[in-house]
Amino acid sequence: MSELSFEQMLDESFKTIHNGEVVDGTVIDVKPDEIILNIGYKADGIITKNEYSNDSSLDLTTVVSVGDPMTVKVLKVNDGEGQVLLTYKRLAAEKGNERLREAYENKEVLKATVTQILGGGICATVDEVRVFIPASLVSDSYEKDLGKYEGQEIEFVISEFNPRRNRVIGDRRQLLVAEREEKQKELFARLQVGDRIDGTVKNVTDFGAFVDLGGVDGLLHISEMSWGRVDNPKKIFHVGDNLNVLVKDIHDTKIALSLKFPETNPWANAAEDFAVGNIITGRVARMTDFGAFVELAPGVDALLHVSQISRAHVDKPSDVLSIGQEITARIVDLNEAEKKISLSMKVLEPEHRDDEDETYYSDAEAAEE
Fold first, then answer.
1. CA 280: distance to chain centroid?
2. Where is the composition biased (Acidic residues) (predicted)?
């Protein structure tokens, strides 16, 4: 029986490995871009930074230490220099794919950090597997700026799983839709007309503002923003404003809101505030050929008929008055039922004729009609 050479005895003392085999090893040296492992083979194993992580900026000395155990996969038994080329990343990805397959089949909700922003969506990494979430599935509403999600931890489900084509698609939208529907059920179950509720302005248009009431949007129409006149909602409200609003109406899933609270109704104390004989100050809000409408308070306009502007003859209100001008006048008639108030500046002028006041209101009504 022939004696074995030293090299043969040394070879037989180490295990045999093959390409694709999963082996355990211990870190014996680590550099910023390379890890060296003792894998019980005649040659040490090498893991390059590219085979450890997809992060090209990663310093391996910050994540691995000498003595750490590692389970890796053999890429090449001999890399041409007598060393074994290993991969940690690909083995982790295989395990990650299996993890994602189970999550896909079980419709499991996953949580991961957004690692990349692309033109058409965002990416998150789960166990070294990149999950792509298209822009249309990122939110339940249009997102103009996806950059705000970078570094943010989000929840999603896997809606498509095809690792052979390197296609793993996540869906965050369906979770948000389901959450919103649940909140809607809870809110509609307890919300009633007449309730007051806090909300946040979500969007402002020319005809009103949409207010998020906590999963449900309500419409604050321009006509319900104030007892007074509102010409441009965008000058009053902005996205993010916090409001306390009144629920005016609920129809199916639509909620009409209002800021016209009953206790602030300017007509509530009209008999006292706008009693006949009171001398008031108001602002000219608009004019017609037959008279000027004067705002006495937000939501309360009074008619100053052209015949009651001055003892001197006035052809048109615009000849002597201007929009925004502040005037002083006496209330000569109040009709609470029809919310009509009539004014006269003429009666405050000296040497006026009392009999002229008696025919004023009927003339004003006829002119307005």
1. 46
2. 354-369
3-state secondary structure 305-337: EHHHCCCCCCCCHHHCCCCCCEEEEEEEEEECC
- The 10 Å Cβ neighbour count of residue 238 is 11
Of 111, 110, 116, nearest in space to 151 by CA: 116
DSSP E strand boundaries for the chain: 22-31, 34-38, 45-48, 69-76, 84-87, 110-118, 121-126, 129-134, 153-162, 167-171, 196-204, 208-212, 217-221, 242-251, 254-258, 279-287, 291-297, 300-305, 326-335, 340-344
Structure tokens at 39: 């894998």
Amino acid at 171: D
Opening angle at CA 276, ends 333 and 367, nearest 5: 15
Residue 199, CB half-sphere, CA atoms under 13 Å: how many? 30
CA of residue 56 relative to chain centroid, distance: 34
8 Å CB contact between 228 and 295 = yes
Q: Which of 39, 151, 348 is nearest to 47 (CA)?
A: 39
Residues in the chain: 369
Looking up tokens 């492992």 gives 37
The residue type found at 368 is: E
CB atoms within 10 A of CB 212: 13
Going residue by residue through the chain, which has 369 residues, state the pLDDT in tens, using 9 for 90 and above.
Answer: 445 454 544 455 567 888 889 999 999 999 999 999 999 888 899 999 999 987 788 899 999 999 999 999 999 988 667 789 999 988 888 888 888 999 999 999 999 999 999 989 999 988 878 899 999 999 988 888 899 999 999 999 999 998 888 889 999 999 999 988 888 888 888 899 999 999 999 999 999 999 999 878 999 999 999 888 888 999 999 999 999 999 999 988 889 999 999 888 888 888 888 999 999 999 999 999 999 999 998 889 999 999 999 999 999 999 999 999 999 999 999 998 898 999 999 999 886 445 444 444 444 444 444
Place of tokens 């100053």: 304
Sequence-distant (6+) residues with CB within 8 A of 363 are 305, 307
> Distance between CA atoms of 93 and 131, rounded to whole angstroms?
12
